[in-house]
Write a structure and sequence with these properties.
It holds the Pfam family DNA_binding_1. By secondary structure, this protein is α/β, with parallel strands linked by helices. It is built from seven helices and eight strands, in the order βαβββαβαβαβααβα. The protein has two domains: about 1-100, Double Stranded RNA Binding Domain (2-Layer Sandwich), CATH 3.30.160; about 105-185, Winged helix-like DNA-binding domain superfamily/Winged helix DNA-binding domain (Arc Repressor Mutant, subunit A). The protein has helices spanning about 10-15, 55-65, 75-85, 105-115, 125-130, 140-145, 170-185, and strands at about 1-5, 20-30, 30-40, 45-50, 70, 95-100, 125, 160.
Length: about 190
């Protein structure tokens, strides 16, 4: 089960000194990724795919959380969390995973809506706009989806254009791999 906390960019700026972030790299079933979490409650605040190399992926994390102290996870907290995420099965009791969403109220509303899309299914930007009761905000919904910084857990990969077109900020290759993985594990 995924639970979440939210924080606005303004609140982060005011309280940045309270954020110490741990990161590590993980080889997920569909590709290498960088994951980061808070030091206090172990909330995942960044989950992105390594598109170019580890150095660039780390720079993206630092740019997203510029006022925070960012440290390499030396005690394998992240590895244990990721193993839990990818080893969940129906027979095993699911552990709760906490994520921290940082964005505007609109972005957070869109990201929460994405979490309602069933695993292995896809929807359209238009349908997401309907879910949040903003049917005319399709472009704004698409922009918010593109700014999602918690891949896979906030499943932006499940959204397609109404014509079936497929875009993904980390590349269509990752999107297709995740959808295939989900189809095989549902």
């Amino acid at each position: 089960m995924i639970t979440f906390q939210t924080i606005s960019s303004e609140t982060y700026k005011k309280n940045h000194d309270k954020f110490q972030i741990y990161y590590d790299f993980y080889d997920a079933p569909f590709g290498r990724c960088i994951i980061a979490l808070t030091d206090t409650d172990k909330a995942i605040l960044h989950f992105a795919f390594v598109v170019k190399d580890d150095i660039d992926a780390l720079k993206d994390l630092e740019n997203e959380w510029p006022m925070s102290k960012i440290l390499k996870d030396s005690i394998q907290m992240i590895s244990n969390i990721m193993k839990n995420i990818f080893n969940m099965s129906d027979e095993k009791e699911e552990e709760s995973i906490l994520i921290l969403l940082k964005g505007t109220d609109f972005q957070i509303k869109v990201w929460k809506a994405l979490m309602s899309i069933p695993k292995g299914k896809t929807t359209t930007y238009e349908q997401v706009a309907q879910i949040i009761n903003k049917p005319k905000a399709v472009r704004a919904v698409a922009t918010a989806i593109g700014k999602n910084r918690i891949a896979y857990l906030v499943p932006c990969h499940r959204v397609m254009g109404k014509d079936g077109s497929s875009k993904y900020s980390c590349g269509v290759k990752y999107k297709e791999s995740i959808l295939s993985y989900e189809s095989n594990t549902c």
